């Protein structure tokens, strides 16, 4: 078992990074690697080189090869991110656009159709939302976000769906309430990963 935690927030003192640190501690003794996309200065812009690699007429850029190797070591992936406009930040979306590409995460051609390739990976989601759970339920925001990522990305690439745990009301004035929400989300994700680890023993 090896878990890759991917965090996308430019502020190292943000709740996003606090949650990542708490989750990393809760996963002990499972092997964990943390990827801070902002600190690592990952470039989310999809370039002509990315496009040519996607089409099979070029090689993957060196920074993408490094991400592929990092993901190939992982049995579990956890995406930890603040919700921006009911979706993920551009930094994380660009990471997925550039890394989860044709030929590596899946293969698609007019002749053979779709062949997912990430069956060995389980993907978990830990979105950090400013709104409350009631608003997300009333307006269908949680369902829309889960459909976009779980079905549109995770299922498409053949990865197993892991746990999804929202941290709601992340900007409320009561630090105690925020702490309870964080503890709950960390407990759900770490519990799912520990359960998988025990099942493999």
UniProtKB/TrEMBL annotation:
Segments forming domain Flavodoxin-like fold: 1-183
Keyword list, A-Z: Oxidoreductase
Entry keyword Oxidoreductase: yes
EC main group: oxidoreductase
GO molecular function: oxidoreductase activity
Enzyme Commission number(s) of this protein: 1.-.-.-
InterPro entries found in the cross-reference section: Flavodoxin_fold, Flavoprotein-like_sf, NAD(P)H_dehydrogenase_qn
Coiled coil: none
UniProt similarity note: Belongs to the NAD(P)H dehydrogenase (quinone) family.
Protein name: NAD(P)H-dependent oxidoreductase
Keyword Oxidoreductase recorded: yes
Pfam hit, one: Flavodoxin_2
